[in-house]
Design a protein that fits this description.
The complex is a heterodimer. By secondary structure, chain A is of the alpha+beta class. Chain A is built from 8 helices and 13 strands. Chain A has helices at about 15-25, 65-80, 100-115, 170-180, 200-205, 220-230, 250-255, 280-285, and strands at about 45-55, 60, 65, 85-95, 120-130, 135-145, 165, 210-215, 235-240, 270-275, 295-300, 310, 320. In chain A, the strands form 3 sheets. Chain A has a 7-stranded mixed β-sheet with strand order 8-10-7-11-9-12-13, with helices on both faces. In chain A, strands 1-6-4-5 form a 4-stranded mixed β-sheet, with helices on one face. Chain A has a two-stranded antiparallel ribbon with strand order 2-3. The longest helix of chain A is centred in the first third of the chain and has 18 residues, at about 100-115. Chain B is about 35% helix and about 15% strand. Chain B has helices at about 1-25, 35-45, 70-85, 120-130, 145-160, 170-180, 195-200, 225-240, 260-265, 295-300, 315-320, 345, 350-360; strands at about 30-35, 55-60, 85-90, 115, 135-140, 165-170, 190-195, 215-220, 245, 270-275, 280-290. In chain B, strands 4-3-5-6-11-10 form a 6-stranded mixed β-sheet, sandwiched between helices. Chain B has a 5-stranded parallel β-sheet with strand order 2-1-7-8-9. In chain B, helix 1 (about 1-25) runs parallel beside helix 8, helix 2 packs parallel to helix 13 and helix 5 (about 145-160) packs across helix 9. Classes of the chains: A alpha+beta, B alpha/beta. The interface between A and B is large, with 25 and 53 residues.
Chain lengths: ~325, ~375
């Protein structure tokens, strides 16, 4: 069985073999034919640049893998900045002993995601760390996109009466990964929602300035990003618990494990603050995008209490929706 | 799906109207103690505390297993790891509880020395694949004890020799007796734990119906269950009778779950137990029967008996007894948060302080939060 050896990172012949014969063929295009130290990229418009690093454990999980995450995650960071993703870099940190077949599985997944997202991988790097010093495979990916015209996204543009929209059901990615890591049979029917959010962002951004603010609800889930959005603002958010889309099976598994779907990471959920007067038509448009069929208006921007997220519960009570705290741990009873 | 949603809201509104009406008829303030930690969390998570009239208060009781476990128990768990090389297996919440010296098991997270379990059934495989002694931290109430007991009975049949139990189990009824006997009693009625009652049934609560007792309502954990339980409780207070009512009939039978109790009784027997905040309560714990004493971590590792210790300034001991609410504590929310907990009520996801910190700060609106 072929595995990654320390020599694959030495800069010698095995390194060259790894890059030229195992990795590069997946991303070779007519435009980028030579392996040089850098790449020229044409940009027409305002470039937007981002980077993210992926260390998910385990690297393969139901519905996705670290490669797919590295592409969609970085593209989604650009998309929620109002940019069309164009170019990606990939930096691999491979652990000695990783099966080359597993690396190829990741590369195939990256290739499929890159095609789906309509971006090009234009530069990359590979390092090998000794056994025990890494989690099999880590990936850093930076992305460059170009800002769509007439977008001006900022929490500062949020005003009272704006509406909060969630594009897709919450919680499935985080619980699917946790279940794969901890081998929880109770959650084996769940799979990651990992996908490109650019189509969803573009459908909303056609409404120009009516879109105030976009985020993808990744680590910390909806609870974290809503709190980040209102921190420091002179406004608050009111969220209707019963309007928040959560799949029944996710709700059931979360209950069993003592997790809150509002606090669990997603990789395919867009959260938007939009002009309240146009919320209905914008949400209807969003629902025509693949993966966003359950898009819902889940709340609105309120004057008081400033800087807080208030949740109206299913029975009509209210409470603060706080930042998630601590690690995801199973419940005790 | 929308029909179900709106009917939940309508039923909740109807119960809310009843609660208002009975509370008005009662014409005096009433404090309801939710005994169970899961109720503490769910009542606040569902915002029910903001739906009640101002004359009705909720206060938490001694029903969070982590919170009533003395901090010296953590010291002994660390001793088993550090002096005997044991693998300590536990449910997640115990990991962050500080011992008397401030150290917790979290320093061993991610090592082979501490294993977080999702189910006690994992213990058998853990012991069989380990050469070191594996110790399970046996905390909890009647809800979880039968499942744990059945695993140890199975281990006994399989002749597993490196699996041990460090019992700090608690039973609910003796604690309620202790609360009743306290002259400083801070509650008018008891909201009784649904899950525990599934196992023990109604009989162990009957002493509450005697003179000097208190009204008790067994309630479930869904928001509507809890609103219904509170409605029935205020009605009971209105009647002035110390009665036990079972409002969780879809899960709790009069006689409880005999089979589960038999499993518990095969392995364990009652013993005096030290409760954090409440001191020693006679017959309120469960320890291994002599014929199963070979599982006993206390004997195997010569562990010292538990002692009471509270971190300076921490009010957890009073919170557990319903004599203080978290905002009474000078550490609450500043020096003690879920990220940097001082006392167990802030560590545990079932803890009162954690529930107040996370959900309790919602503004109590004049229109009682969304009831339009």
């Amino acid at each position: 069985m072929s595995v990654i050896k320390l020599e694959h990172g030495s800069g010698g012949s095995l390194s060259r073999h790894l890059v030229e014969n195992i990795i590069y063929p997946w991303f070779k295009t007519n435009r980028y034919t030579a392996l040089t130290d850098g790449t020229e990229i044409p940009i027409d418009g305002t470039p937007v640049f981002t980077t993210d690093t992926y260390v998910v454990d385990p690297p393969f999980f139901p519905g996705g893998d670290i490669g797919m995450l590295a592409v969609f995650g970085t593209c989604n960071d650009l998309a929620v900045c109002g940019a069309k993703p164009l170019y990606l870099s990939l930096g691999f940190i491979l652990e000695e002993g990783l099966l080359i077949s597993d690396l190829e599985r990741v590369l195939a997944s990256i290739k499929a995601a890159v095609e789906k997202a309509g971006v090009a991988v234009v530069t990359g790097d590979t390092k090998v760390v000794p056994k025990g010093k890494g989690g099999g495979i880590y990936i850093n990916s930076s992305g460059i996109g170009v800002r769509l015209p007439d977008t001006a996204l900022s929490p500062k543009r949020i005003v009272e009466g704006d509406k909060l929209v969630v594009s897709s059901p919450l919680g499935e990615h985080g619980i699917a990964v946790l279940a794969a890591r901890e081998k929880l049979t109770v959650a084996k029917t769940l799979s990651s929602d990992c996908r490109s959010l650019f189509p969803a962002c573009r459908s909303l951004l056609r409404f120009g300035g009516a879109v105030r603010f976009l985020r993808d609800a990744t680590r910390g889930g909806l609870a974290a990003i809503l709190n980040e959005a209102v921190t420091g603002l002179d406004l608050g958010l009111r969220v209707e618990e019963e309007q928040i889309p959560v799949k029944e099976k996710v709700r059931t598994v979360s209950d069993i494990l003592g997790l809150n779907p509002l606090e669990v990471a997603n990789e395919g959920v867009l959260v938007a603050v939009i002009d309240g007067s146009r919320a209905e038509e914008m949400t209807a448009r969003l629902r025509t995008v693949e993966g966003c069929e359950d898009a819902s208006v889940v709340g609105d921007v309120i004057a008081e209490p400033a800087g807080k997220v208030v949740l109206t519960t299913a029975v009509g009570g209210s409470r603060i929706l706080d930042f998630p705290r601590g690690l995801l741990l199973p419940r005790i009873c | 799906m929308n029909d179900t949603r709106s009917s939940v809201r309508e039923k909740a509104a109807a119960l809310s109207v009843l609660i208002d009406q009975y509370a008005k008829e009662l014409s005096r303030p009433a404090t309801l103690m939710e005994v169970c930690g899961t109720h503490t969390v769910n009542l606040r998570k569902s915002g029910i505390h903001t739906m009640l009239p101002s004359s009705i208060s909720l206060i938490s009781g001694p029903g969070c297993p982590v919170c009533v476990t003395p901090s010296s128990y953590i010291d002994n768990a660390l001793t088993m790891i550090e002096e005997y090389g044991a693998v300590v297996a536990t449910f997640g919440d115990m990991i962050k509880v500080p011992g008397t010296g401030g150290r917790s098991l979290s320093q061993y997270m991610g090592t082979e020395q501490v294993k977080i379990l999702y189910s006690p059934a994992e213990l058998i495989a853990l012991a069989e694949t380990n050469e070191r002694p594996v110790v399970f931290l046996g905390i909890g109430f009647e809800t979880t004890i039968p499942a744990i007991a059945s695993v140890f009975l199975k281990a006994s049949q399989r002749g597993i020799e490196n699996l041990f139990l460090y019992p700090a189990f608690k039973t609910v009824a003796p604690a309620l007796k202790a609360l009743l006997a306290d002259t400083e009693r801070g509650f008018d009625g008891l909201l009784l734990p649904g899950h525990v009652s599934v196992i023990i049934g109604l009989e162990p609560y009957r002493f509450l119906e005697a003179d000097g007792g208190a009204a008790g309502v067994i309630m479930g954990f869904e928001p509507l269950d809890m609103l219904e339980g509170i409605t029935v409780m205020i009605k009971l207070l209105l009647s002035g009778e110390n009665k036990i009512r079972n409002c969780y009939t879809r899960a709790v039978r009069e006689e409880g779950n005999r089979k589960a109790r038999e499993i518990m009784d095969t392995l364990l027997e009652p013993a005096d137990a030290l409760w954090r905040g409440l001191g020693i309560i006679p017959g309120s714990g469960l320890t291994l029967k002599p014929e199963y004493s070979r599982f006993d971590a206390v004997e195997r590792f010569s562990l010292p008996p538990l002692s009471s210790y509270e971190p300076p300034g921490c009010l957890c001991a009073r919170v557990i007894q319903g004599k203080a609410v978290p905002p009474d504590c000078s550490l609450f929310g500043s020096f003690c948060t879920p990220d940097q907990p001082v006392g167990p009520c802030m560590v545990s996801s079932e803890g009162t302080c954690a529930a107040y910190f996370r959900y309790g700060a919602a503004p109590r609106t004049d229109d009682k939060g969304g009831k339009q």
